[in-house]
Design goal:
- This protein has helices spanning about 5-45, 50-85, 110, 115-135.
- The chain has about 140 residues and is mainly α.
- Helix 1 (about 5-45) runs antiparallel to helix 2 (about 50-85) and helix 1 runs parallel beside helix 4.
- The model has no long low-confidence stretch (mean pLDDT about 90).
Length: about 140
């Protein structure tokens, strides 16, 4: 039985990248809630409705950044699946995700429109609308 330590090491490298992308997704969601809540608090305190309008800019910026990191995570998952199927002698420790960027599921647009991001950010936008009406 051939030693599979190179394959395992390569898969660990890829998994570390997947974990890093996943961590970025988590942090972005936390920052989006924090920043939007702060802007709404300022709008309520100062009775300045401009803050409500300004709060939509971070919503879209964080949504698009989340889409970027999700698309990168999906590309690394595709690389992981490819390496998992390789024979030990074919392991070259490549971390290139270029071959996977044209897969329709791995595109930025597909990630932005994914069920999880749509649910989160559209839900957050709806909550923002309700709060904007309540603050009036």
């Amino acid at each position: 039985m051939p030693d599979s330590s190179n394959k395992h090491k390569h898969l660990e490298f890829i998994q570390a990248s997947i974990s890093r992308m996943s961590g970025n997704l988590f942090l972005l969601k936390g920052w989006s809630i924090t920043l939007i809540a702060a802007l709404f608090a300022l709008a309520a305190r100062d009775a300045n409705k401009t803050y409500i309008v300004v709060a939509y800019f971070p919503l879209f910026i964080f949504w698009f950044l989340d889409g970027y990191f999700l698309s990168m995570e999906r590309r690394f998952r595709s690389l992981y699946e490819h390496v998992r199927k390789l024979k030990e002698e074919d392991i070259d420790f490549s971390m290139s995700i270029e071959p996977y960027k044209h897969d329709p599921r791995n595109t930025w647009f597909s990630a932005v429109c994914s069920r999880t991001l749509l649910t989160y950010y559209v839900g957050l936008a709806l909550v923002m609308i309700v709060l904007a009406i309540a603050i009036r």
